[in-house]
Fold this sequence. Notes:
Elements: H1 3-27, E1 29-31, H2 33-43, H3 45-65, E2 71-80, E3 85-86, H4 90-97, H5 99-116, H6 118-126, H7 128-139, H8 143-156, E4 158-159, E5 163-176, H9 180-246, H10 252-286, E6 295-297, H11 316-322, H12 324-345, E7 350-361, E8 373-383, H13 391-458, H14 463-498
Parallel strand pairs: 1-6
Antiparallel strand pairs: 2-5, 3-4, 5-7, 7-8
Helix pairs in contact: 1-9, 2-9, 3-9, 4-8, 5-7, 5-8, 9-10, 9-12, 9-14, 12-13, 13-14
Amino acid sequence: MNRKDIRTVCMAAIICAAILQETAADAQQMLTLEQCREMAVSTSKTLQAAEKKKEMASYDKKAAMAAWFPEISIVGTYQYNSRNLSLLSEDASDALKNTGNTVQGDIRDKISSLLSDPVTGAIIQSSPELLAFVNSLGTMDIAGPLNALGAEIDNAFTLGINNVFAGAVTLTQPIFMGGKIISYNKIAALASDLAGAEYDAEYQAVLWNVEQAWWQTISLQAKVDLAQSYADLLHMMEHDVQALEAEGMATGTDVLSVKVKVNEADMLLTKAGNGLILSKMLLCKLCGLPPESDIMLAYDTSDPDFSPQEVPVKSDEEIFAARPEIRSLGIATEIYSRKVTVARSDMMPKIALTGNYIVTSPNLFHGFSNRPGGFFNVGVTMQIPIIHGCEAMQKTRKAKAEAEMTRLRLEEAKEMISLQAASLRKQDEEAIRKMGMALEHMDSAEENLRTATVGFNEGVIPAQTLFAAQTAWLQAHSEYIDAGISMQLSRTGLLKAYGDLTERHGNNACPAE
Protein backbone atom coordinates (compact mmCIF):
# COMPACT_ATOMS: atom_id res chain seq x y z
CA MET A 1 0.00 0.00 0.00
CA ASN A 2 1.50 3.34 -1.06
CA ARG A 3 1.22 6.71 0.65
CA LYS A 4 -1.75 7.77 -1.50
CA ASP A 5 -3.73 4.65 -0.55
CA ILE A 6 -2.99 5.21 3.15
CA ARG A 7 -4.29 8.79 2.94
CA THR A 8 -7.42 7.59 1.14
CA VAL A 9 -8.13 5.06 3.90
CA CYS A 10 -7.59 7.68 6.61
CA MET A 11 -9.87 10.19 4.94
CA ALA A 12 -12.56 7.53 4.58
CA ALA A 13 -12.26 6.72 8.29
CA ILE A 14 -12.57 10.40 9.18
CA ILE A 15 -15.66 10.78 6.99
CA CYS A 16 -17.28 7.68 8.55
CA ALA A 17 -16.55 9.02 12.04
CA ALA A 18 -18.14 12.34 11.10
CA ILE A 19 -21.25 10.58 9.78
CA LEU A 20 -21.53 8.53 12.98
CA GLN A 21 -21.10 11.69 15.03
CA GLU A 22 -23.90 13.41 13.10
CA THR A 23 -26.16 10.39 13.66
CA ALA A 24 -25.48 10.45 17.40
CA ALA A 25 -26.06 14.19 17.47
CA ASP A 26 -29.60 13.65 16.20
CA ALA A 27 -30.37 11.86 19.49
CA GLN A 28 -28.83 14.66 21.56
CA GLN A 29 -30.72 17.65 22.89
CA MET A 30 -29.70 20.68 20.87
CA LEU A 31 -29.59 23.88 22.93
CA THR A 32 -29.02 27.47 21.94
CA LEU A 33 -27.75 30.09 24.36
CA GLU A 34 -31.17 31.70 24.45
CA GLN A 35 -32.77 28.37 25.35
CA CYS A 36 -30.23 27.86 28.13
CA ARG A 37 -30.99 31.32 29.49
CA GLU A 38 -34.74 30.69 29.45
CA MET A 39 -34.38 27.28 31.10
CA ALA A 40 -32.08 28.68 33.80
CA VAL A 41 -34.50 31.52 34.55
CA SER A 42 -37.52 29.19 34.74
CA THR A 43 -35.82 26.63 37.03
CA SER A 44 -33.60 28.82 39.24
CA LYS A 45 -34.46 28.33 42.93
CA THR A 46 -32.80 31.65 43.71
CA LEU A 47 -35.08 33.48 41.29
CA GLN A 48 -38.11 31.64 42.63
CA ALA A 49 -37.19 32.75 46.15
CA ALA A 50 -36.74 36.34 44.89
CA GLU A 51 -40.16 36.12 43.24
CA LYS A 52 -41.69 35.02 46.56
CA LYS A 53 -39.97 37.97 48.23
CA LYS A 54 -41.65 40.28 45.72
CA GLU A 55 -44.97 38.63 46.50
CA MET A 56 -44.41 39.09 50.25
CA ALA A 57 -43.56 42.76 49.70
CA SER A 58 -46.83 43.26 47.81
CA TYR A 59 -48.72 41.79 50.77
CA ASP A 60 -46.88 44.15 53.14
CA LYS A 61 -47.88 47.04 50.90
CA LYS A 62 -51.54 46.04 51.07
CA ALA A 63 -51.29 45.51 54.83
CA ALA A 64 -49.90 49.04 55.26
CA MET A 65 -52.91 50.41 53.37
CA ALA A 66 -55.18 48.91 56.04
CA ALA A 67 -53.95 51.52 58.55
CA TRP A 68 -56.03 54.15 56.70
CA PHE A 69 -59.28 52.31 57.46
CA PRO A 70 -61.11 52.05 60.80
CA GLU A 71 -60.42 49.08 63.02
CA ILE A 72 -63.55 47.25 64.17
CA SER A 73 -63.40 44.59 66.86
CA ILE A 74 -65.85 42.57 68.95
CA VAL A 75 -65.21 41.59 72.56
CA GLY A 76 -67.36 39.22 74.61
CA THR A 77 -67.01 37.98 78.19
CA TYR A 78 -68.81 35.77 80.73
CA GLN A 79 -68.20 35.66 84.48
CA TYR A 80 -69.64 33.49 87.22
CA ASN A 81 -69.78 34.98 90.76
CA SER A 82 -70.30 32.86 93.86
CA ARG A 83 -72.41 35.50 95.71
CA ASN A 84 -75.01 38.14 94.82
CA LEU A 85 -75.04 41.77 95.94
CA SER A 86 -77.53 43.06 98.55
CA LEU A 87 -78.36 46.71 99.19
CA LEU A 88 -79.54 45.91 102.74
CA SER A 89 -77.56 44.99 105.79
CA GLU A 90 -77.84 41.51 107.18
CA ASP A 91 -79.92 42.74 110.19
CA ALA A 92 -82.30 44.65 107.93
CA SER A 93 -82.67 41.63 105.68
CA ASP A 94 -83.49 39.35 108.64
CA ALA A 95 -85.97 41.92 109.96
CA LEU A 96 -87.82 42.03 106.65
CA LYS A 97 -87.97 38.26 106.39
CA ASN A 98 -89.44 38.00 109.98
CA THR A 99 -91.83 40.97 109.80
CA GLY A 100 -94.89 38.74 110.16
CA ASN A 101 -93.58 36.98 113.23
CA THR A 102 -92.74 40.29 114.85
CA VAL A 103 -96.16 41.79 114.11
CA GLN A 104 -97.96 38.59 115.24
CA GLY A 105 -96.04 38.62 118.55
CA ASP A 106 -96.71 42.32 119.08
CA ILE A 107 -100.49 41.78 118.56
CA ARG A 108 -100.61 38.91 120.99
CA ASP A 109 -98.62 40.86 123.55
CA LYS A 110 -101.00 43.82 123.12
CA ILE A 111 -104.11 41.62 123.53
CA SER A 112 -102.66 40.04 126.61
CA SER A 113 -101.89 43.49 128.00
CA LEU A 114 -105.43 44.65 127.28
CA LEU A 115 -107.06 41.61 128.96
CA SER A 116 -104.82 41.88 132.00
CA ASP A 117 -105.61 45.55 132.49
CA PRO A 118 -108.42 45.92 135.17
CA VAL A 119 -110.35 48.57 133.30
CA THR A 120 -110.00 47.41 129.66
CA GLY A 121 -110.17 43.78 130.64
CA ALA A 122 -113.49 44.31 132.48
CA ILE A 123 -114.93 46.19 129.52
CA ILE A 124 -113.87 43.46 127.00
CA GLN A 125 -115.06 40.59 129.14
CA SER A 126 -118.39 42.32 129.81
CA SER A 127 -119.27 41.96 126.14
CA PRO A 128 -119.16 38.41 124.70
CA GLU A 129 -119.01 39.75 121.13
CA LEU A 130 -116.08 42.06 121.90
CA LEU A 131 -114.27 39.29 123.76
CA ALA A 132 -114.74 36.95 120.78
CA PHE A 133 -113.38 39.62 118.41
CA VAL A 134 -110.31 40.24 120.57
CA ASN A 135 -109.63 36.53 120.85
CA SER A 136 -109.98 36.16 117.08
CA LEU A 137 -107.30 38.81 116.60
CA GLY A 138 -104.92 36.80 118.73
CA THR A 139 -105.52 33.60 116.78
CA MET A 140 -105.48 35.22 113.28
CA ASP A 141 -102.46 34.15 111.07
CA ILE A 142 -100.76 37.43 110.19
CA ALA A 143 -97.15 36.18 110.31
CA GLY A 144 -97.25 34.17 107.06
CA PRO A 145 -98.39 36.90 104.65
CA LEU A 146 -96.23 39.56 106.27
CA ASN A 147 -93.16 37.27 106.22
CA ALA A 148 -93.74 36.63 102.51
CA LEU A 149 -94.11 40.34 101.84
CA GLY A 150 -90.87 41.06 103.74
CA ALA A 151 -89.01 38.35 101.82
CA GLU A 152 -90.23 39.85 98.55
CA ILE A 153 -89.02 43.29 99.60
CA ASP A 154 -85.67 41.79 100.64
CA ASN A 155 -85.32 40.11 97.22
CA ALA A 156 -86.01 43.43 95.52
CA PHE A 157 -82.93 44.85 97.23
CA THR A 158 -80.75 41.88 96.17
CA LEU A 159 -78.82 42.14 92.85
CA GLY A 160 -78.30 38.78 91.12
CA ILE A 161 -74.79 38.75 89.68
CA ASN A 162 -74.10 35.00 89.68
CA ASN A 163 -73.99 35.00 85.84
CA VAL A 164 -72.67 38.14 84.18
CA PHE A 165 -72.50 38.57 80.39
CA ALA A 166 -70.90 41.53 78.59
CA GLY A 167 -70.02 42.35 75.01
CA ALA A 168 -68.75 45.34 73.05
CA VAL A 169 -68.28 46.39 69.43
CA THR A 170 -65.41 48.89 69.15
CA LEU A 171 -64.49 51.14 66.22
CA THR A 172 -61.22 53.09 66.12
CA GLN A 173 -60.43 55.48 63.27
CA PRO A 174 -56.96 57.11 63.35
CA ILE A 175 -57.06 60.80 62.45
CA PHE A 176 -53.47 61.94 63.05
CA MET A 177 -50.62 59.62 64.06
CA GLY A 178 -47.72 62.01 63.72
CA GLY A 179 -47.11 61.04 60.07
CA LYS A 180 -46.47 57.37 60.90
CA ILE A 181 -49.23 55.97 58.67
CA ILE A 182 -48.10 57.96 55.63
CA SER A 183 -44.49 56.93 56.21
CA TYR A 184 -45.36 53.27 56.70
CA ASN A 185 -47.32 53.22 53.44
CA LYS A 186 -44.43 54.87 51.59
CA ILE A 187 -41.93 52.43 53.16
CA ALA A 188 -44.10 49.47 52.13
CA ALA A 189 -44.27 50.78 48.54
CA LEU A 190 -40.51 51.31 48.51
CA ALA A 191 -39.95 47.82 49.95
CA SER A 192 -41.98 46.41 47.05
CA ASP A 193 -39.77 48.33 44.60
CA LEU A 194 -36.69 47.11 46.48
CA ALA A 195 -37.81 43.48 46.11
CA GLY A 196 -38.23 44.10 42.38
CA ALA A 197 -34.72 45.55 42.11
CA GLU A 198 -33.27 42.61 44.05
CA TYR A 199 -35.09 40.24 41.69
CA ASP A 200 -33.53 42.02 38.71
CA ALA A 201 -30.08 41.64 40.30
CA GLU A 202 -30.63 37.92 40.85
CA TYR A 203 -31.97 37.62 37.30
CA GLN A 204 -28.83 39.13 35.83
CA ALA A 205 -26.67 36.95 38.10
CA VAL A 206 -28.41 33.83 36.75
CA LEU A 207 -27.88 34.98 33.17
CA TRP A 208 -24.22 35.77 33.90
CA ASN A 209 -23.61 32.30 35.33
CA VAL A 210 -25.28 30.67 32.32
CA GLU A 211 -23.28 32.78 29.86
CA GLN A 212 -20.03 31.87 31.62
CA ALA A 213 -20.89 28.15 31.62
CA TRP A 214 -22.03 28.35 27.98
CA TRP A 215 -18.83 29.97 26.70
CA GLN A 216 -16.68 27.71 28.85
CA THR A 217 -18.40 24.73 27.27
CA ILE A 218 -17.98 26.26 23.80
CA SER A 219 -14.28 26.79 24.55
CA LEU A 220 -13.80 23.18 25.67
CA GLN A 221 -15.83 21.85 22.73
CA ALA A 222 -13.68 23.88 20.32
CA LYS A 223 -10.54 22.59 22.01
CA VAL A 224 -11.85 19.01 21.76
CA ASP A 225 -12.37 19.55 18.03
CA LEU A 226 -8.92 21.10 17.83
CA ALA A 227 -7.36 18.20 19.75
CA GLN A 228 -9.18 15.78 17.47
CA SER A 229 -7.82 17.55 14.37
CA TYR A 230 -4.35 17.53 15.90
CA ALA A 231 -4.64 13.83 16.71
CA ASP A 232 -5.88 13.11 13.17
CA LEU A 233 -2.86 14.94 11.73
CA LEU A 234 -0.48 12.91 13.85
CA HIS A 235 -2.25 9.62 13.10
CA MET A 236 -2.02 10.39 9.38
CA MET A 237 1.63 11.32 9.82
CA GLU A 238 2.15 8.03 11.69
CA HIS A 239 0.78 6.09 8.74
CA ASP A 240 2.94 8.13 6.36
CA VAL A 241 6.12 7.53 8.42
CA GLN A 242 5.37 3.82 8.73
CA ALA A 243 4.94 3.66 4.93
CA LEU A 244 8.20 5.55 4.46
CA GLU A 245 9.95 3.17 6.86
CA ALA A 246 8.69 0.22 4.80
CA GLU A 247 10.15 1.85 1.69
CA GLY A 248 13.44 2.55 3.52
CA MET A 249 12.97 6.30 3.48
CA ALA A 250 12.51 6.66 7.28
CA THR A 251 14.11 5.15 10.33
CA GLY A 252 12.65 3.41 13.36
CA THR A 253 13.57 6.46 15.43
CA ASP A 254 11.29 8.57 13.25
CA VAL A 255 8.44 6.09 13.80
CA LEU A 256 8.96 6.12 17.58
CA SER A 257 9.04 9.92 17.64
CA VAL A 258 5.74 10.05 15.79
CA LYS A 259 4.19 7.50 18.14
CA VAL A 260 5.23 9.56 21.16
CA LYS A 261 3.53 12.60 19.63
CA VAL A 262 0.45 10.51 18.80
CA ASN A 263 0.21 9.35 22.42
CA GLU A 264 0.53 12.93 23.62
CA ALA A 265 -2.23 14.02 21.22
CA ASP A 266 -4.51 11.19 22.38
CA MET A 267 -3.90 12.14 26.02
CA LEU A 268 -4.64 15.79 25.21
CA LEU A 269 -7.88 14.72 23.51
CA THR A 270 -8.87 12.65 26.55
CA LYS A 271 -8.25 15.52 28.98
CA ALA A 272 -10.19 17.94 26.80
CA GLY A 273 -13.07 15.46 26.55
CA ASN A 274 -13.22 15.00 30.32
CA GLY A 275 -13.21 18.75 30.84
CA LEU A 276 -16.04 19.10 28.30
CA ILE A 277 -18.13 16.51 30.14
CA LEU A 278 -17.72 18.35 33.46
CA SER A 279 -18.54 21.69 31.83
CA LYS A 280 -21.70 20.27 30.28
CA MET A 281 -22.73 18.87 33.66
CA LEU A 282 -22.41 22.36 35.16
CA LEU A 283 -24.42 23.88 32.31
CA CYS A 284 -27.12 21.21 32.74
CA LYS A 285 -27.34 21.99 36.45
CA LEU A 286 -27.77 25.71 35.75
CA CYS A 287 -30.45 24.93 33.17
CA GLY A 288 -32.35 22.64 35.52
CA LEU A 289 -31.53 19.50 33.54
CA PRO A 290 -30.22 16.23 35.02
CA PRO A 291 -26.39 16.39 35.10
CA GLU A 292 -26.12 13.28 32.95
CA SER A 293 -28.26 14.78 30.15
CA ASP A 294 -26.81 14.37 26.68
CA ILE A 295 -26.81 17.93 25.32
CA MET A 296 -25.26 19.54 22.30
CA LEU A 297 -24.71 23.28 21.95
CA ALA A 298 -25.99 24.96 18.81
CA TYR A 299 -22.67 26.55 17.87
CA ASP A 300 -20.24 25.65 15.10
CA THR A 301 -17.07 25.02 17.12
CA SER A 302 -15.26 23.62 14.08
CA ASP A 303 -15.16 27.14 12.64
CA PRO A 304 -16.00 29.50 15.52
CA ASP A 305 -16.91 33.08 14.68
CA PHE A 306 -15.95 35.37 17.55
CA SER A 307 -17.18 38.68 16.24
CA PRO A 308 -19.82 40.24 18.53
CA GLN A 309 -21.10 43.70 17.80
CA GLU A 310 -19.71 46.67 19.59
CA VAL A 311 -21.34 47.53 22.91
CA PRO A 312 -22.20 51.24 22.87
CA VAL A 313 -20.48 53.25 25.58
CA LYS A 314 -22.77 54.49 28.34
CA SER A 315 -22.34 57.41 30.67
CA ASP A 316 -22.13 56.86 34.41
CA GLU A 317 -25.63 58.23 34.93
CA GLU A 318 -27.06 55.79 32.37
CA ILE A 319 -25.23 52.92 34.05
CA PHE A 320 -26.48 53.95 37.50
CA ALA A 321 -30.05 54.11 36.21
CA ALA A 322 -29.79 50.60 34.71
CA ARG A 323 -27.93 48.81 37.52
CA PRO A 324 -30.32 47.04 39.94
CA GLU A 325 -27.74 47.31 42.73
CA ILE A 326 -27.79 51.12 42.52
CA ARG A 327 -31.59 51.10 42.39
CA SER A 328 -31.64 48.88 45.48
CA LEU A 329 -29.32 51.16 47.45
CA GLY A 330 -31.22 54.25 46.29
CA ILE A 331 -34.50 52.74 47.46
CA ALA A 332 -32.89 51.65 50.74
CA THR A 333 -31.65 55.21 51.29
CA GLU A 334 -35.17 56.55 50.82
CA ILE A 335 -36.59 53.88 53.15
CA TYR A 336 -34.21 54.87 55.93
CA SER A 337 -35.12 58.53 55.37
CA ARG A 338 -38.77 57.57 55.89
CA LYS A 339 -37.81 55.68 59.05
CA VAL A 340 -36.62 58.99 60.49
CA THR A 341 -40.21 60.27 60.15
CA VAL A 342 -41.51 57.10 61.79
CA ALA A 343 -39.15 57.51 64.74
CA ARG A 344 -40.02 61.21 65.04
CA SER A 345 -43.76 60.39 65.10
CA ASP A 346 -43.34 58.91 68.58
CA MET A 347 -42.81 62.49 69.81
CA MET A 348 -45.93 63.82 68.03
CA PRO A 349 -49.50 63.90 69.39
CA LYS A 350 -51.86 61.17 68.23
CA ILE A 351 -55.58 61.68 67.62
CA ALA A 352 -58.15 58.98 66.95
CA LEU A 353 -61.95 58.77 66.72
CA THR A 354 -63.53 55.98 68.80
CA GLY A 355 -66.98 54.46 68.92
CA ASN A 356 -68.35 51.65 71.09
CA TYR A 357 -71.56 49.72 71.57
CA ILE A 358 -71.63 47.86 74.91
CA VAL A 359 -74.13 45.21 76.01
CA THR A 360 -74.33 43.82 79.56
CA SER A 361 -76.53 41.37 81.40
CA PRO A 362 -77.59 42.22 84.10
CA ASN A 363 -77.93 45.97 83.49
CA LEU A 364 -78.90 49.03 85.56
CA PHE A 365 -80.46 51.22 82.89
CA HIS A 366 -84.00 50.95 84.37
CA GLY A 367 -83.31 49.63 87.82
CA PHE A 368 -81.62 46.30 88.16
CA SER A 369 -82.56 43.83 85.40
CA ASN A 370 -81.14 40.49 84.30
CA ARG A 371 -82.18 41.15 80.72
CA PRO A 372 -79.48 42.28 78.23
CA GLY A 373 -79.23 46.03 77.78
CA GLY A 374 -76.80 48.16 75.82
CA PHE A 375 -75.66 51.65 74.91
CA PHE A 376 -73.22 53.29 72.50
CA ASN A 377 -70.68 56.07 72.84
CA VAL A 378 -68.60 58.15 70.45
CA GLY A 379 -65.50 60.11 71.36
CA VAL A 380 -62.12 61.48 70.35
CA THR A 381 -58.92 60.41 72.07
CA MET A 382 -55.67 62.34 72.08
CA GLN A 383 -52.31 61.17 73.33
CA ILE A 384 -49.54 63.70 73.80
CA PRO A 385 -46.19 62.18 74.83
CA ILE A 386 -44.28 64.25 77.35
CA ILE A 387 -41.05 62.41 78.20
CA HIS A 388 -39.83 58.84 78.47
CA GLY A 389 -36.13 59.12 79.10
CA CYS A 390 -35.63 60.82 75.67
CA GLU A 391 -36.20 57.40 74.04
CA ALA A 392 -37.95 58.78 70.96
CA MET A 393 -35.22 61.38 70.45
CA GLN A 394 -32.49 58.73 70.55
CA LYS A 395 -34.43 56.55 68.11
CA THR A 396 -34.74 59.50 65.74
CA ARG A 397 -31.01 60.17 65.92
CA LYS A 398 -30.29 56.51 65.24
CA ALA A 399 -32.61 56.54 62.20
CA LYS A 400 -30.81 59.63 60.85
CA ALA A 401 -27.46 57.88 61.29
CA GLU A 402 -28.75 54.79 59.43
CA ALA A 403 -30.04 56.98 56.59
CA GLU A 404 -26.65 58.71 56.32
CA MET A 405 -24.82 55.36 56.40
CA THR A 406 -26.99 54.03 53.55
CA ARG A 407 -26.38 57.21 51.53
CA LEU A 408 -22.62 56.76 51.95
CA ARG A 409 -22.92 53.13 50.82
CA LEU A 410 -24.79 54.33 47.74
CA GLU A 411 -22.07 56.84 46.89
CA GLU A 412 -19.38 54.20 47.39
CA ALA A 413 -21.26 51.73 45.18
CA LYS A 414 -21.52 54.34 42.43
CA GLU A 415 -17.77 54.92 42.58
CA MET A 416 -17.04 51.17 42.46
CA ILE A 417 -19.45 50.56 39.57
CA SER A 418 -17.99 53.48 37.63
CA LEU A 419 -14.51 52.01 38.18
CA GLN A 420 -15.76 48.53 37.23
CA ALA A 421 -17.27 49.80 33.95
CA ALA A 422 -14.06 51.64 33.04
CA SER A 423 -11.97 48.57 33.88
CA LEU A 424 -14.17 46.28 31.79
CA ARG A 425 -13.98 48.67 28.84
CA LYS A 426 -10.19 48.47 29.05
CA GLN A 427 -10.38 44.67 29.27
CA ASP A 428 -12.63 44.63 26.22
CA GLU A 429 -10.16 46.74 24.24
CA GLU A 430 -7.34 44.44 25.33
CA ALA A 431 -9.38 41.36 24.33
CA ILE A 432 -9.89 42.88 20.84
CA ARG A 433 -6.15 43.46 20.45
CA LYS A 434 -5.39 39.90 21.61
CA MET A 435 -7.94 38.62 19.10
CA GLY A 436 -6.21 40.47 16.27
CA MET A 437 -2.81 39.12 17.29
CA ALA A 438 -4.24 35.59 17.66
CA LEU A 439 -5.64 35.77 14.10
CA GLU A 440 -2.28 36.86 12.71
CA HIS A 441 -0.49 34.14 14.69
CA MET A 442 -2.98 31.52 13.47
CA ASP A 443 -2.56 32.55 9.82
CA SER A 444 1.22 32.32 10.19
CA ALA A 445 0.95 28.93 11.88
CA GLU A 446 -1.36 27.66 9.12
CA GLU A 447 1.11 28.71 6.44
CA ASN A 448 4.04 27.31 8.43
CA LEU A 449 2.27 23.94 8.83
CA ARG A 450 1.39 23.84 5.14
CA THR A 451 5.00 24.54 4.14
CA ALA A 452 6.38 22.03 6.65
CA THR A 453 3.94 19.34 5.52
CA VAL A 454 4.89 19.82 1.84
CA GLY A 455 8.59 19.75 2.73
CA PHE A 456 8.16 16.60 4.83
CA ASN A 457 6.23 14.86 2.05
CA GLU A 458 8.99 15.83 -0.38
CA GLY A 459 11.57 14.49 2.06
CA VAL A 460 13.46 17.77 2.46
CA ILE A 461 12.27 18.59 6.01
CA PRO A 462 12.81 16.27 9.00
CA ALA A 463 9.98 15.04 11.20
CA GLN A 464 11.06 17.20 14.13
CA THR A 465 10.49 20.34 12.08
CA LEU A 466 7.01 19.13 11.15
CA PHE A 467 6.35 18.33 14.83
CA ALA A 468 7.33 21.89 15.73
CA ALA A 469 5.03 23.29 13.02
CA GLN A 470 2.15 21.11 14.23
CA THR A 471 2.71 22.18 17.85
CA ALA A 472 2.81 25.84 16.79
CA TRP A 473 -0.40 25.29 14.79
CA LEU A 474 -2.09 23.72 17.83
CA GLN A 475 -0.94 26.53 20.11
CA ALA A 476 -2.04 29.24 17.65
CA HIS A 477 -5.53 27.76 17.30
CA SER A 478 -5.79 27.30 21.07
CA GLU A 479 -4.80 30.93 21.63
CA TYR A 480 -7.38 31.99 19.03
CA ILE A 481 -10.09 30.08 20.92
CA ASP A 482 -8.98 31.54 24.26
CA ALA A 483 -8.89 35.06 22.81
CA GLY A 484 -12.34 34.63 21.27
CA ILE A 485 -13.88 33.28 24.47
CA SER A 486 -12.15 36.01 26.49
CA MET A 487 -13.61 38.62 24.13
CA GLN A 488 -17.10 37.12 24.43
CA LEU A 489 -16.91 37.05 28.22
CA SER A 490 -15.52 40.58 28.37
CA ARG A 491 -18.46 41.78 26.24
CA THR A 492 -20.88 39.85 28.44
CA GLY A 493 -19.24 41.29 31.56
CA LEU A 494 -19.50 44.77 30.07
CA LEU A 495 -23.21 44.25 29.39
CA LYS A 496 -23.64 43.11 32.99
CA ALA A 497 -21.77 46.18 34.22
CA TYR A 498 -24.08 48.33 32.09
CA GLY A 499 -27.15 46.54 33.48
CA ASP A 500 -28.08 45.32 29.96
CA LEU A 501 -27.36 41.61 30.27
CA THR A 502 -30.99 40.79 29.53
CA GLU A 503 -30.53 42.13 25.99
CA ARG A 504 -28.94 40.09 23.20
CA HIS A 505 -26.06 41.69 21.30
CA GLY A 506 -24.50 40.58 18.06
CA ASN A 507 -23.03 37.12 17.86
CA ASN A 508 -24.17 36.33 21.42
CA ALA A 509 -27.26 34.91 19.74
CA CYS A 510 -25.00 31.98 18.76
CA PRO A 511 -25.52 30.65 15.23
CA ALA A 512 -26.71 27.08 15.02
CA GLU A 513 -24.67 24.47 13.28
